Amino acid sequence: MKDAQKPDHISLNMLVSRLKEGRFVIPDFQREFEWKPWDIRDLMRSIFLDYYIGSLLLWKGKEENFDALSCEDVYGFSGDGKREHIVLDGQQRLTAMNYAFTAPDIPPALAKQPLLLFHPS
C-alpha cells in the first residue's frame, strides 16, 4: 500500500492556529454541533490534564470536494477561511476547541449567549 497515509501528529497550538485560519470544514452529512457548555468544559479539562481525547479523521479536500459535499466552516468560525481539510470524525471536539480557544461571538447550541471559558486562579 504505497499510497497509504500515516497519521500526523500536531501540537495543540498548531491545531488551534489551523482552527483560527478556517482550515477545517464540515460536510453537510455531519450532524450539527450539539455539545452543551459542560461538555466543552470537560474536554478542556481532559486536554489540560493530558488525557487522550481521541483522534481526528480529516480528508485533505479540493474545491470540487468542498462544493460537492456542501461544506461549511466550523460553527463559530467567522472570516474567510483557508479551506483545507474536511472533518469526517471529530467535529464536536474541534468545534468545542474553537469555542474554548478563540471565543467566537455567537452562542453554542442550547446557550443563549456566547460562552467565556476560564479557569479561576
Furnish the topology, listing elements before pairings.
Blueprint: H1 12-20, E1 24-26, H2 37-48, E2 57-60, H3 63-68, E3 72-73, E4 85-89, H4 91-102
Parallel strand pairs: 1-4
Antiparallel strand pairs: 1-3, 2-4
Strand content: 5-15%
Strand order of the main beta sheet, please? 2-4-1-3
Gyration radius over CA: 15 Å
Order of helices and strands: HEHEHEEH
Low-confidence stretches: none
What's the number of helices?
A: 4
Helix content estimate: 25-40%
How widely separated are the two ends? 51 Å
- For this structure, the quaternary state is single chain
Strand segment count: 4
* Average pLDDT, all residues: 85
Describe the structure.
The chain has 121 residues and is an alpha+beta fold. It has one domain. Helix content is 32%, strand content 12%. It contains four helices and four strands; from the N terminus they run H-E-H-E-H-E-E-H. The chain has helices spanning 12-20, 37-48, 63-68, 91-102; strands at 24-26, 57-60, 72-73, 85-89. A four-stranded mixed β-sheet has the order 2-4-1-3, with no helix packed on it. The radius of gyration is 15 Å and the shape is globular.
Briefly say what this structure is.
With 121 residues, the protein is α+β, with helices and mostly antiparallel strands. It has helices at residues 12-20, 37-48, 63-68, 91-102; strands spanning 24-26, 57-60, 72-73, 85-89.
